[in-house]
Design goal:
This protein is an alpha/beta fold and 423 residues long. It folds into three domains: 127 residues, 3-Layer(aba) Sandwich (Rossmann fold), CATH 3.40.50.720; 162 residues, Dihydrodipicolinate Reductase, domain 2 (2-Layer Sandwich); 80 residues, Alpha-Beta Plaits, CATH 3.30.70. The chain has 13 helices and 17 strands. The strands form two sheets. Strands 6, 7, 8, 9, 10, 11, 12, 13, 14, 15, 16 and 17 form a twelve-stranded mixed beta sheet that branches. The chain has a five-stranded parallel beta sheet with strand order 2-1-3-4-5, with helices on both faces. α3 links the parallel β3 and β4. α4 crosses α9, α6 packs across α7 and α12 packs antiparallel against α13.
């Protein structure tokens, strides 16, 4: 039986879940894994649950770093600072670190990876993407025989909850957001979720692991859901689509595209059935084909499951694993990043209900090599009508240039929304 001494930094929602999980599952882990998990110290600004006084760390350096008996440090305070300093200090002391910190990993992974490798310490981060969904470990330990060419995921529960409620209850974005905040499904300041930043950090980690090449956040296109209206969702439904905030990564040869944005997907797509606060990742390997992993992407016990799994995984290894791809601040010279990707597009254009306007719009699309797959006009009005276009596959830049020109058609009153479509 092997003893593993642990220090826990942060006792918020996830930290409390980790504390409870270790206590609840201690004997079960001993029986299944031959490991005795001993929580020696807990460091927190506020102790949100009752823990013994002897466990409370008064000084990070003295009580955790200088304690040579502590093997693993769990960091769950989030954000970049002081989390980065805590992790680097722990790695510098040769202690393995387990973290759920997606922003820190996305922004400073090369530095943390180098520090871990230099000091022979482990760095594990399963809980940084997908909460309780074991996506990182699946890529690392189960899909080694594959070249993964695409990942597409719903990896932010807050936005998926909001879009699901807008679709099911026919409510406005503002109304559903307020409800989500009251229920604790959205933060008081939900910017990171709503603007796609949370999903962007996660996609950086996920696509880097999937494509065996570091994908920095600077190379990820990011667009949130704040511009989505009930009309977009309703018209999409009429055309057989559901709307999701997707994190999308694709690799062809040495070229990678990575993007986060609202996306129309057919109601028959596996991701279309992912409702509420649930997450899912859909990926394609050249040998295994399509795989989807589904589950809760957040929550105290769900994320704790991934954190404690990393602790067990790290404790059971004689030699720690590090990324074997080029993992530096500058991207590999062998890689290129695509910003003019190809997809279908949903466009909602507001125009006067007058003869010839459809032909004028179609002509502009054609001049930019954008082919129209279908058109839907909703209602009749002397003032304005919405025109819904679905294009065939077209280049991102071509569609944007077409839209810029369409705005100058006298009968066009505005382009209400442009939403990408994935099949």
């Amino acid at each position: 039986m092997k003893n593993v001494n642990i220090a826990l930094i942060g006792l918020g929602t996830v930290g409390s879940g980790v504390y409870k999980t270790i206590a609840m599952q201690k004997s079960n882990i001993e029986h299944k894994e031959g490991l005795i998990l001993n929580l020696k110290k807990v460091l927190a600004l506020e102790y949100t649950i009752d823990i013994p006084e002897a466990l409370k760390a008064k000084d990070f350096e003295h009580d955790i770093i200088e304690d040579k008996s502590i093997d693993i440090v769990i960091e769950l305070i989030g954000g970049v600072h002081p989390a980065k300093e805590f992790i680097l200090a722990a790695l510098g002391a040769g202690k393995t670190v387990v973290t759920a910190n997606k922003e820190l990993m996305a922004r400073h992974w090369p530095e943390l990876n180098a520090a871990a490798k230099k000091n022979g310490a482990g760095l594990y981060f399963e809980a940084s993407v997908g909460g309780g969904i074991p996506i990182i470990r699946t890529i690392w330990d189960s899909l080694q025989a594959n070249e993964i060419t695409s990942v597409m995921g719903i990896i932010n529960g807050t936005t998926n909850y909001i879009l699901t409620r807008m679709e099911e209850e026919k409510e406005s974005f503002e109304s559903v957001l307020g409800e989500a905040q009251r229920l604790g499904m959205a933060e008081a300041n939900p910017k990171s979720d709503l603007e796609g930043l949370d999903a962007m950090y996660k996609l950086s980690i996920l696509s880097s692991m999937a494509f065996h090449a570091r994908v920095p956040i600077e190379y990820i296109y990011c667009e949130g859901i704040t511009g989505i209206t009930q009309e977009d969702i309703a018209y999409g439904q009429e055309l057989g689509y559901t709307l999701k905030l997707l994190a999308i990564g694709k690799k062809s040869g040495n070229t990678i595209e990575a993007r986060v944005h609202p996306t129309m997907i057919p109601v028959t797509h596996p991701l279309a059935s992912v409702r509420g606060a649930f997450n899912a990742v859909f990926l394609h390997g050249n040998i295994v084909g399509d795989i989807m992993l589904y589950g809760r992407g957040a929550g105290d016990m769900q994320t704790a499951s991934a954190v404690v799994s990393d602790v067990i995984y790290a404790a059971g290894r004689e030699k720690h694993r590090y990324t074997t791809f080029y993992n530096e601040d500058k991207v590999s010279a062998e890689l290129s990043f695509e910003n003019n990707w190809e997809s279908e597009f949903f466009l909602r254009i507001i125009a006067q209900d007058s003869p010839g306007v459809l032909a004028k719009i179609a002509s502009v699309f054609g001049s930019h090599n954008v082919s129209i797959a279908s058109v839907m006009q909703k209602g009749q009005s002397k003032d304005s009508v919405p025109l819904i276009f679905i294009t065939h596959k077209a280049k991102e830049i071509s569609v944007k240039r077409a839209v810029d020109d369409i705005k100058y058609i006298p009968e066009v009153l505005g382009v209400a929304n442009i939403i990408r479509v994935e099949n």
